[in-house]
Amino acid sequence: MTYLFSNMKRQPGGLYTAVIPYNDEDAIYQAVFASIMEASTRAEAKGHGAVFDPDGFLKVLRALARKNSVKALRPVEGLIFVAAWDLLRPIFIGTNLNFRGLSMRPNGQNIETADGIVSEDVCLLRRQLVELAAGKPPGAWFPEGGIGKHFVKLCMQHYAEHGMNGEIFPERQLFEYAIDNTNIIRLQRELGAKLGEYPHSGLYRFKGLTPAIQDRLFIPMEPVWATLPDGSKDPDRFIMPWKSDSGRQQQHTSFTRGISSFTGYEVFQSEMVSAGEPLPEEMAKNIAASALKAGNRVILEEREERAAAAKCSPSPSIPLEGTTKEMYEAMFAYGGTELVTPLFRPANDDEVIYNLHVGDNPVLASAVGKMVPIRRLGDKIMQTGSLDLTEGMREASTLQTAKKLQLVRQSSGNPHFNLVAA
Amino acid sequence: MKTQPLNDAMETINETKELMASIGKMLTEATTLNNAGKYSEAITLAYQASDKIAVAYLLIVTGLKYSEGWDTYNLFDATLREPERHPAHLQLIREIAGDVYVLREANEPSLLDETTSKDAKQMIDHVEALRVLMVDIFR
Question: A405: part of which helix (H) or strand (E)?
């Protein structure tokens, strides 16, 4: 784990800190990561009054360890938080999970799209923090504003310097938090995050399409798929765009495949953003419902395609219960990893679970809030937030420029458009 | 952690000395609770004492009064924003207030049922150190 020490940076008060991404080639790291991640997830579940599912957690670890094809980037990345007063005694104090997502930002009448991330479960471990405080040498001090804020900033800098999986440089981060979590609210406000508005709430959770969605007028929409750095279609991210005939209004809905860290099942993180002149609520509701219907159809069709392809493929011998290395070798030898061992497993083949982020847009929040329930985790009401990572990028020592994505018409076939780097 | 009921406290306590004395009593009571096995109550009382210290410092140093909705971090941040007021104590403020920050992050309210006697004592000791420092500064 020599890379751990090379990544540790000394802070003004004498504390060494680093965030380290999941490393699938280092068994010791994996063991440490699994242990810290499990403790973090358990603490997170307890803090929300939710139930921790050990089997579900195992699915999360497997998703972290696998790629969905030999060449493709891993769609989920874990970061581990490390701190030390003495480099010989590093303390692993927390983790978080990040999914490759899409950034959508209104700019006048248009919506700018770029790579983004969806982050969850930023969790600091109590015992490890206490140990860190107890071991503080005389004359040393913690980073100002607390450890949580410091590590969120380090994550921003990590993505600015290294990108997600080393190739995706996100412009914006989407996250959720419990509305009574004053720690997160404080530190995110200080970092300049946009937080959703309560009591409308800006975050909703539903399984499948509710009757209120299905009853709305349907406006046809086609998906716009994001692309991976090598130009291929990213199977885990797309947008359902809508633009008025006059061009003065836009309302886009993004869909990012993710995973629930508590259950291990697939959850789509969606976001709705509008730009231009405000739409009447009924119109916004029809567009929102249409985007969800169209997006849901795309996801279910893609599931069917995967299942059909898997049936047509010869059955390989994959040691699903084996070590990561054994599974990799078998899967890569077969060459059909995505088909045989999907990274994300739905809880129900016919139903898609959504977390829908609407943010601080009152018209959209009101429209969506009449069709789907707000998000609760355990006994907590959850809220959405977003953070501009370009701020972190400006602070980062190695500046990287986030790639702008454009909608580009394809010459033939569906989808009609692709999101490609400008 | 809510700063309940700080407004009431500021209305009734006008003298810094009285405030610091009342904080001292809170910490003594917290120690008594800890010794009686009421660890989460003890650590909660230590939190409230640290809130009061932050409010006192804020009031005396900046003249600002506590605003509804602020939590302890806002209060401590305010104390750290004007270090030039007490350059001789800057280092100690940074060290001790920073410790209290981190201990409060560690002992978040939803996990208080896991509090041990050692946790409560660690928190009480750090808040007491902060109180002693403030008494020295206000002298």
Answer: strand A404-409
